[in-house]
Design goal:
Chain lengths: 370, 394
Amino acid sequence: MDFDLSAEQRLLEESIDSFFAGSFPLSRVRDCYDAQLGRLDDLGALHLSEILIPEAYGGGGGTILDVAVAAERLGAAVAPGPFLGRVLASYAITVAGSDEQRARWLPKLASGERRATIAVGEPGDRWSLDDLRMGGHRLTGEKRYVLAGDGVDAAVVVLTDGLALVDLGADGLTVTNTEVLDRTRPMVSLAFDGPDHERLGGGAPGAAAAERVLQLGAVLVAADAYGGAAKCLEMAVAYSQQREQFGTTIGHFQAIQHQLADMAVDVLPSRGMYWYAAHAMDCGLDDAGGFASLAKAHITERYVAAARRTIEVHGGIGYTWESDLHFFLRRAIFDRAYLGSPEMHRQRRAHSQLTQDQLAQANGHLARAK
Amino acid sequence: MDLTYGPEYERFRGEVRAFLAEHWQPSGGSADVAAFRQAAVAAGYLYRSVPRRYGGSEQPSDVLKARVIREEFTAVRAPMELKSLGTQLLVPTLLEAGAEWQQERFIEATITGQIKWCQGYSEPGAGSDLASLRTTATLTGDRWVIRGQKVWTSFAHEADYMFLLARTDPDADKRKGISYLLVPMDQPGIEVRPLRQITGESEFNEVFLTDATTPADWIVGSPGEGWAVANTTLKHERAWVGDVAESDHLMNSLIRLARRTPGPAGRPWIEDSRLRSRLMEVQGYVEAHRYSGYLQLSRSLKGEPPGALGLTNKISSTNIAERIAAIAIDILGDASLLPHTGADLSGDVGPERWMYQYFGSLGSAIAGGASNIQRNIIAQRGLGLPRDPRVPEK
């Protein structure tokens, strides 16, 4: 029994944290809002987007939990860039690509020579395979909220019946920049009019592989949200120990103490949820899909609540553009909506849990009948 | 990351299962609970921290073995240790701070259920601020003479003895003048009056102590050490790692209720998508609570402090029970207008049991340290905020 991070995973956390503390403070995140973000080569040098690519192809050979731990620390730092998209695209090629496709793509993705993102959402709040419309041989339609920037030049497109790879420069594909709420996550929309593309084929059957990619997405967003929510708690506690009113620091007041205690109760226990969701994927456990959905729904809602409460504890200064706190609230709202709302994910989990539960009950009746 | 117990503990699990298969018949009404407990003690499964000479099984402390035992016993609904104030609060206190004669005289009789205890802590003027208690004990000759009033005293009406906190030095500091005494209940100076709880039952009482007495050596620790002695027990309570079994039990019962209760359009509530969403919202909190428990367990096995996380368990489980109660009364609909009875939610129980749970879930936000006191503890010990909270003055 050791439901905890390994020594290596703790080192990974520390190295990411010390990178951000030393060379990528929130003042650089601010560039997303007030200036040109510029290149992210120094962040890229951490090779976090390539952790999950197998070593044989030049990647980090990490586990899902490894990459989730990285996602948590990136969340705590509100790190800009298309990390989520890049991890999901390389994972898609790993689980669904043929040997030839993996050999052709993964080394390039691992070296950063090519950078692929993931295209999932369609107009009308469509994020789940059941709700998507794009599919079939000729690709037509629209993908929205596609994470981009930092040299992304290709996309893995999630389709109702599998996954396809498309070059962002292909004829028949129109790429449009999108104005976004969370500017740490630049996005484009893709209009498809039959562009050249290649189907990923050879690994897991199409829809099942696409499902796994979306599961990983839910786990990573949950991890990002935990990192952000825990950071909000930390910032609110720190501010309450420094801001003075009524002749003392506001952390002396029981009203503030109880708000912060409630935030701790709300946020801190949820860390193990995304750990287990990642671990369940690593071990191929049956409940991995439903659990990823539950973790995503739960933790992203905790993040939104924590970010709002943190701004409230900061008072007027928290409500200003100059305060960094809105980065977190915007990011929380992104995490909540991207890859499907809490409601969508809870319905998915309800389906898997209550159906399994029903089967177990039916089996119980059978066993008693025998 | 490893959620398995490993071969050594799985072997142990096998032993526990074999023991249960031999000694416990789940459906057999004939099973003798006392004899079963005795066999379980002999096998080393119950009262593991209690020495053999006091009727325990005297096993080295092993959190994982304790967990395996609890899992296996619970799975077949075999009885575990007696759930009483005596076994849960007094016995650990005596083991840590009691005199040898006190241990000999009381521990075995308590864990076998021969004698029953009640806890004399709260007073009308001393609830959350327990250290302001005013019941006094004065040493007169070879006996303590006790005057005062205790309240919310669970099971005082059936108890043989009370462990109580009384002020033995009125001039000392608030916390330094308190002593921990053991007092026989069957004497003229003690009057027990039942209090009716919000559920309508009378489980707790007021206890009036009017020159009640107890022998001079029926004190645990020295005079003036009572606050520290009581805190050794509270320390055990606080170290308690969140157990998700109760939340799971409530959640499963709620899902059963939703399955068999007709809802909108005459279809079972479980098919209603809004209700399903609410159920899964609570399930999220249950899973957070579960894996937070695994994390705390793993840290304690490595001797690492759990930090603020370790202080969140009580409020987490209280909040879960409250959320479940809120959904239950929506499922019950008009049946929530009818009276409630009985506590057990196992099986296909009727609405009256759920209304009991509705009221009972409030009790856990108050008993054993009110949730607002726990919030102070989280803020001050967990988050490092100042220990002297203030109210802003204008």
